[in-house]
């Protein structure tokens, strides 16, 4: 059996959530099913970098251009809600989020292109993998897809050993500086937190960053706010190990990997009560209305003074994070393949 996958986003120095998902699914499938052949397909702008990567023995590298795509594949899996125009015997598309279609979080040009690609992929796919029940509901509502065609497969996390370092009075937030992440409101809420605490923002600039950074520069708490920009995974791990509170008041997330990472690191979490975030956090976080500065400020202040609550949420978070593994995600993805291909027996 030959399975082709869009591996484009698995290449790069700074893998996004989609990139991490792609890498884990690609290599997990190849390792778990040595009897199956895989074509890892890369769009031209990433293909040259992909040529420097070592691949599993049962995988080969292909360029994701219509004339060059493997015709004999039994299945094509688009890992980022896109599918080639070339028809395949069977096709699956993973949908991560549809926030571009629902809010003022991108340019009109990008929104139009994204919407066209998402609708085309949803129409061509024999099955859709959604990374959360929330994303599934969006695919149903916005793309008019029958619920029976959609399978929820959550992301995973690789648990790290607990850090043997002292926690500092730091509120950490990880994610792009963009409107959707609600950074300006987080800054406003933080201004009411005791002066002994710092706010650390880790993430590259995104849509609307200029306005958000200008707001930060005008903050009366500016000297206590550290804007890191993009930082390496190794440096980020240090912040996860030393921060005392994690804040993620995003307005719209298809999954919310930073929340899962923070819980796995043993940091008590404050996050939004909407989109996929309650689904990921469960009872292991303080959930607040992301449009209420007062609610966010109250949650942050409560955690800064209540050590026992911080410890309890940290314990719950570690337990919660153990429910999300890449091994499970790979296994459930393979189950979707089998259903689409009509395979009743096998690995």
From TrEMBL:
One MF term in the entry's GO annotations: glycosyltransferase activity
Domain Glycosyl transferase family: residue ranges: 167-317
Classification via Pfam families: Glyco_transf_4, Glycos_transf_1
GO biological process: one example: lipopolysaccharide biosynthetic process
Protein keywords: Transferase
Keyword Transferase: yes
Protein name from the UniProt record: Glycosyl transferase, group 1
Source species, domain of life: Bacteria
InterPro entries: Glyco_trans_1, Glyco_trans_4-like_N
Residue stretches making up the Glycosyltransferase subfamily 4-like N-terminal domain: 41-157
